[in-house]
Predict the structure.
Amino acid sequence: MKVILVGPSHPYRGGISHYNTRLYKEFIKKGHDCSILNFKRMYPSIFFPGKTQYDESSSIFEAPSDRLLDSINPFSWHKTAKFIKSQNPDVVIFHWWQPFFGPGYNTILKKLENTSKRIFICHNVRPHEESMIDSFLSRRVFKNVDRFIVHSEEDKVNLLEIRPDAVIEKNFHPLYDIFENSGKHKTERRNDKKTPSNILFFGYIRKYKGLEYLLKAMPKILNEVDVRLTVAGEFYDEKQPYLDLIEEHGLSNKINIIDKYIPNEEVEGYFMNSDLVVIPYRDATQSGIIQISYSFGVPVVVTRVGGLPEVVHDGETGYIVEPGSSNAVADAVIDFFKNNKSEEFKNNIAKRKHLFSWENLVITLENLVR
């Protein structure tokens, strides 16, 4: 097939960019003619909460791309559609995660009607803080899409509420295996029994991610096991309330905060030096953090929200706890360490890795085009 992927890739940073690049490589591996239609400008800087949209890693996940699409310039939308039509692709696959891109996407979709199959990969059908305008934009766009891929049952339900006749396939989010050996030196898993165990919270810090519940769980955890917590990710939320919680509970010497976007070459080190990853989200449809954790064989604690329970086998590859409960988070972490679950869970993860392959995703997309 001739495939065009519409979405971010290098020089943009973040999970969607990494996903798009990895998907491109899988299409090429399977012998398809694939290319990426990238953003010339993704977010205007005034709308972006982080320090930069661009990947400043020394280890670059790169793929060739045509940078034509400007999220706020209608002239670029028409230019992009014209370029895509000139390539005569069999399928155009759009990454959908934010209604902000709806007007541009919709212009392109309409111009591709009856020329190429139009598929959406929905990373989030609805944004975490959805407004009325978000809902309006999503409905307008979705009616011009031929087929959809979702990664969770919740996203499938959300999509059918917006468009009841949608043709949808659910495919597990593949593993983020691109971080393995991305550093200058291979990271060996920490195996020093004399050093304390380590818990990891990884990724952007936003309110819906529930870091506060993990911080509040730490005193109970520390009463039972000697652990350290690493919080690695850029704060998109106000930082001071989290620092106040740490100070209030006297946790300063037990918690290491790395307030920055973690560059590609450092990701492996954080996971290989952690025994357990905690994902205490208040709300979610899925989480790429699980897919990074599993790629390194690291068990997880997740909350029972969205699609997280679909990819975690409770008591086998991790723990599923109720959202908004510091006690539940603490009990899971304590059980993991006191009952020495690490090797058992790692072995179970290894047995299930095949469920989260990029090959499976490409096969699903191939079937949607037929």
